[in-house]
Amino acid sequence: MKAVRFFGHKDVRVVNDIEKPVPKGDEVLLKIGGAGVCHSDLHIIDEGTVVGTVFTLGHENAGWIEEIGENVEGYKKGDAVLVYGPWGCGHCKPCQQSKENYCDHQSEQAYGGGLGLDGGMSEYMLVPSSRLLVPIFDLDPVIAAPLTDAALTPYSAIKRSLPKLMADEYVVVIGVGGLGHVALQILREISGAEIIACDVTEDKLAFAKELGAAYAINSKDADVAEQIQKITGIKKAKVVLDFVGSTSTIDLGTKVVSLDGDLTIVGLGGGHYQYSMNGLPFGVSMTNPYWGSRTELMEVVGLARQKKIHIEIEKHKLDDANEVYERMRQGKIKGRAVLIP
Ligand code: NAD
Ligand code: ZN
Ligand code: ZN
Fold first, then answer.
1. 129 has pLDDT over 90
2. Looking at CB atoms within 10 Å, which of 126, 207, 219, 272 has the fewest?
3. How many angstroms does the Cα of residue 90 sit away from the middle of ligand 3?
4. According to DSSP H, which parts of 112-161 are helical?
5. Atom number in ligand 1 closest to CA 39
């Protein structure tokens, strides 16, 4: 079968000679409907965040059950499902609480399909346990795939700050890409706070306004922090969600976050931050969340089924993977690109 494989630093190839796996025990074989293209893939491909192993890319996956192992119950051929992406041990306390994104054993094992193990940019994908599937009912797997990351990750980040996102507060969203454009919609639907969005191109700023941002500011402007403070006044922004994570965006976050606020760095842009007593308002919680839990993914499916969030999608073939990654490097994708086998 055809698959988009990672061979090492800047070496991604579409191959045709991968054998279709056969599920055993609790394993499930999925026929892939769509595999989302996440910026984290570029950190793997260009910066070597996963090394020493050849695997099929794609960690945002959805499809239909093709075949189940002999121990799988509750699923049948043709059921439409998402693949929960961070694969934990399944046994430790965080895994039992459905938070496999914080599995005790994360440092010992590969993170999941498309992140060191074979992922979903392929005709079929082997999922190690039916525990990792979330049913999507009437949603189309071709377009639902990004719910597993581009929606789940901002949802989980927002949910932890929800008590601070009241209608008299401001929230700053930095980066209106795959994750950021869904973050704006989740904020619009489940929080009361007024949204200030930042990106670096005019089309992304216009897109942010369509999705619920009251203000959209170009973070290339030298006075971006002053522009934000002019909107928020002396109280500043109660929550900052940084979907870039570069040194400049983290620095911006520290300047606009309020006393007792949350500075949440989701982007893995390799930025640095040096703590200094006067550099951060008192009471700020700085956090770097990773993905979300399985039950939060079920809640995200609920938001999508109620049409409260909509993922803007570009559809491409597996053969076009390298061109799509190149467009993502240049910041040219609106919403999310999805590869469709
Ligand atoms: P994306 O490429 O779709 O979007 C990035 C957006 O940021 C683009 O719109 C781009 O124009 C904008 N941008 C770039 N530099 C900027 C700046 N200085 N100021 C404002 N905007 C800027 O990427 P994505 O798939 O949404 O991923 C975003 C980041 O989140 C990546 O670093 C990715 O690796 C990371 N990520 C983290 C997790 C997690 O669990 N922590 C999960 C998924 C993705
Ligand atoms: Zn991702
Ligand atoms: Zn675990």
1. yes
2. 272
3. 5
4. 141-144, 152-161
5. 25
Q: Residue type for 60, please?
A: E
Give the residue, out of 103, 199, 338, with the most ligand 1 atoms within 8 A of its beta carbon, to mutate for a pocket test.
199
Q: Where are the domains positioned within the chain?
A: 3-147+292-340, 161-287
- In single-letter form, the type of residue at position 33 comes to G
The Cα–Cα gap between 237 and 172 comes to 7
Binding-site residues, ligand 1, Cβ < 6 A: 38-40, 43, 149, 153, 174-180, 198-201, 204, 219, 243-246, 248-249, 266-269, 289-291, 328, 331, 333
Q: Which CATH fold topology does 3-147+292-340 show?
A: Quinone Oxidoreductase; Chain A, domain 1 (3.90.180)
Q: In this structure, which ligand is nearest to the CA of 268?
A: 1
| Model-wide pTM > 0.90 | yes
The confidence score (pLDDT) of residue 331 equals: 95
pLDDT in tens, 181-228: 999 999 999 999 999 999 999 999 999 999 999 999 999 999 999 999
Q: Is 89 helix (H, G, I), strand (E, B) or coil?
A: coil
pLDDT tens-digit profile of 70-123? 999 999 999 999 999 999 999 999 999 999 999 999 988 767 999 999 999 999
pLDDT of residue 209: 98
Residue 244 has pLDDT above 80, yes or no: yes
In 163-307, beta strands by DSSP E: 170-174, 194-199, 215-218, 237-242, 257-265, 285-287
178 neighbors 336 (Cβ within 8 angstroms): yes
Written as six digits, the tokens of 315 are 């559809």
Cα(179) to centroid of ligand 1, in Å?
A: 7
Give the per-residue pLDDT at 273.
96
Cα distance between residue 67 and residue 268, in whole Å: 35
Which amino acid residue places its CA nearest to atom 23 of ligand 1?
39
The CATH number of 161-287, from 1.10.3720.10, 3.90.850.10, 3.90.76.10, 3.40.50.720, is 3.40.50.720
